[in-house]
Amino acid sequence: MVNHEQRTECWSWHKHLKRKDPFCAEISDFQRTAPMTELSAHLPQFQHGQLTENFPDNHLSNTNDNSERRRHDNSERRRNDNAESETNGQPQNNMQQVVEQDEEDEELTLKYGAKHVIMLFVPVTLCMVVVVATIKSVSFYTRKDGQLIYTPFTEETETVGQRALNSILNAAIMISVIIVMTILLVVLYKYRCYKVIHGWLIISSLLLLFFFSFIYLGEVFKTYNVAMDYITVALMIWNFGVVGMICIHWKGPLRLQQAYLIMISALMALVFIKYLPEWTAWLILAVISVYDLVAVLCPKGPLRMLVETAQERNETLFPALIYSSTMIWLVNMAEEDPEAQRKTSKNSTYDKQAPANQTQNEGAEADDGGFSQEWQQQRDNRIGPIESTPESRAAVQALPSNSQTSEDPEERGVKLGLGDFIFYSVLVGKASATASGDWNTTLACFVAILIGLCLTLLLLAIFKKALPALPISITFGLVFYFATDNLVQPFMDQLAFHQFYI
Amino acid sequence: MTLAIFFGCTFIAFGPALGLFLFTIARDPLRIIIFIAGAFFWLVSLLLSSLIWFIAIKASDPRDEPLQKGLLIFGVMFSVLLQEAFRFLYYKLLRKAIEGLVALSEDGCSPISIQQMAYVAGVGFGFMSGAFSMINLLADALGPGTVGIHGDSQLYFLTSAFMTMVLIFLHTFWGILFFHGCEHRRWWEITAVIVMHLAVSGSTFCNPLYMGSLVPSYLLMATAATWAYLLSGGSAQNLQRFLLCKSCSVMGTGDPAGSSGYLDQCWGGKRVSQGLE
User: Fold this and answer.
1) Which residues of A touch B36 (CB under 8 A)?
2) Can you tell me which residues the record assigns to a coiled coil (chain B) (predicted)?
3) Alpha-carbon distance A166 to A158, whole Å?
4) Burial of B198 (C-beta count, 10 Å sphere; 0-12/13-18/19+)
5) For the segment A63-112, what is each residue's pLDDT rounded down to a tens digit?
6) Of A106, A451, A496, the CB nearest to B104
7) Has residue A404 got a pLDDT over 50?
8) CA A72, CA A215: separation in Å to the nearest integer?
9) Angstroms from B167 CA to nearest CA on chain A
10) Element housing A115 (H / E)
11) Does pTM surpass 0.80?
12) CA torsion angle for A396, A401, A406, A408 (degrees, to 10)?
C-alpha cells in the first residue's frame, strides 16, 4: 500500500483542529502497528533433503519519523499558507476557512502527487533493475533446485491438466499458509506477545541480511569466476549485515536505509523467482493481488482487525517493512509520545515465505502509512469520540514556527510496503527469466507496473481512501506479460526479420 | 558480435533520446509521468495491432510465403494507424489532465502546457517504439555471431540503429505536430502526420535496400523537425541568435514548471512561453 495520504490527513487534522495533534503521531503508530500482520513464522524448506530456511523480511521504516516530519510539515504548511492558521487553535473555526484549506490541501496533494509518484518510481525501478540484472547474469537463480515446502507439487508432469492442477494446489497451499500466518499474527498481537514478535522480526532480518546475501555473493563470485577467500567474505558479509541491521532497525542515513531495503526486497524476490515453479508463480501473483484487494477493502480482513485492535489499545503496531522516501527530522517537536518515536525503528520482520500475504497485509498496513484503510478507519473512529481540547490546541500552537520554516514542504515523503516491491520484482524477474520475448516482455511488464503504480496513487489522491498497491500493477503486469510474450513477440520477430519498422 | 558494436549501436539509437530525456524530462516529475504514460499508450496500440495480426496469421495458411508477407505488411500499416489513433486518445487524456491541473493550481495556470506535453508524449512514443525495435537486437549483438553470414546485409545492426534513431526523432516531432493540429483543429496537420508515418514505415519495406528507407526517413525527419520548430514558436532569428550566442534580453531563466529554460508567464489564465532570446 502506498502512503502519502497521511500527510493530507494530517493537514486536515490541523485545519479542523478537532483532534489532538498527537493524532498525527498516531498515524505513525498505525504504520508501526500495521506491519504486525507481517509477522510470519518462517518455515523451513526442504531442498534435496537439506534443510534451509526462508527468512522473513521485516523492516520497519522510520515511519514514525515520517509522521513526525509530516506533522511538522503540516503545521508549517498551515502557518505558511494561511495567515489565519494560528486562529485554527480556536475551537470551531468558520467553515469557510476550513473549506479553503481543504481545497488548498487538495491542490497541494495533487501538486506534490507527481513528485511522490517519482519518489516511488525510482526505488521500484532500481529494485527491478537489480533483480533483472541478477537473473540475466547469475544462472543460479534460474536453475531449478527444488521447490519450497509450501509448494510441494511438482510441475514436471506428463499432461498439461496435471500440471495445471498441481499449480493450483500449490498456489492454494501458499495462500492458506499466508492467511494462517496473518491470523497467527493477529492472535499474537491480541494477546500482547510483543516480545515474541520483536524477536521474530530481528531474527528474520538477521537471517535475511546475512544468510541470503552470503548466498548471493557466493553465486556472483561463481558466475564471474572471482577467487575469494573466506576471511574476506566473512568481513564483507559481517559489515554488510551489521550496518544493514543498524540502518533498518535503528537509525542510519536515509539513502543507506533505502538502499538496504531495496537490496533486501531484491534478495527476497530472487528467492521467490528461484523456488517457485512457473505456473505456480503466476497463479500466486494473481491470487495475492486479489487477496490484497480483499484484505484492504473488506471490513473483515485480518489486517483490519489488527489495526482496529491497535487503535483500541491506542498503541502502535510494529511497522512493517516500509520503504520511506523522506528523512525524518525531529525538530523541537512537542513530543506527545516519545515512546512511539523510539519504537519507530523497530521493524517488524516478516517471513518471506508466508510473506506473500503478510507482505501484502503488511504492505497494506505498512505503506498504508496513511493510505491504509485501517488508517481511514482509525481516523473515522477517532473523529467521533475525540474532541479538540485546549491542551492539544495549545500544544499545536506551541510548536515552534521558526524551526519549521526552513523545512521544505516538498520534502514530504511517501511510503510503499516492501511486499509490493518484492512482488513487482518477482513479476518482472520471472518475465525476464522465462519469456520468449525476453527484453521486450521485460520492458513491457516494467512499464505496465509503473503505470499501475501511477494509477494507484492517482486513485488514492482522488478517493482519499486506503487502496492496495498490488492489484492494478500486477494485473497490468500479468496482462502485458502474456500478451507481449504470445502476441507481440511473434509480430516483432517477423518485423525484425524483414527489417520493417512500425 | 562485440562490445563495440553493442555500445555503438546503443548510443546511435538511443543517445539523442537519452539526451532529450536527461535534459528536458528527467527533472520534472510530471513530465516523467507523461513520458511513461506515453510509452504505455504506444505499448497498448502495439498490443492491439499484434493481436489483429496474430488472428490474421492463425486464420491463414502458414506455408504461403507471399500471403504471410502480405499479412505482415497489412499488420504494419494497421499498426501505424492504430498508433496514431492512440496518439489521439492520449491527446484527449492529456487535455483532460490539463483541465484538472488548471482547476487545482494556485494561479489558474497549469504547471505544464499542452505543447510541452506534446513534446514529452512524442518522446515517450518514440522511446518505446525504438526500444521495442532495438533491444532484442542489442542483446543479440553482445553474443557470438557473424552478421549477414547467410548472404544478408552486413550492415544490419548499424542500419537498425540509425533507423531507430530517426524513428524516435520522428515520433517526437509528430507528437508536436499532431497535438498542435488537434489543438487548433487543423486536420490537415493530423493527416500529414499520419501520411508521414505511413510513408516512413512503407519505406522500410525496401530494406535491405537501405538507400530507399534511410534517406527518405531522414529527409522526412528534417521536414518534420523544421515544421515542429516553426509551430513551437521558433524562427530563423531565434536560431541565429542561439547559434551566435547572443545574450538574453528577457529576464529570468527557467520556468516554474521545469527546466525548459523558457520563461513562462501566466496571462489571463493561459501559460505563455517566451523563448529566451
Assistant:
1) 121, 447, 450-451, 454
2) none
3) 12
4) middle
5) 333 333 333 333 334 333 333 333 444 444 455 555 555 555 555 555 55
6) A106
7) no
8) 43
9) 9
10) helix A95-137
11) no
12) 30
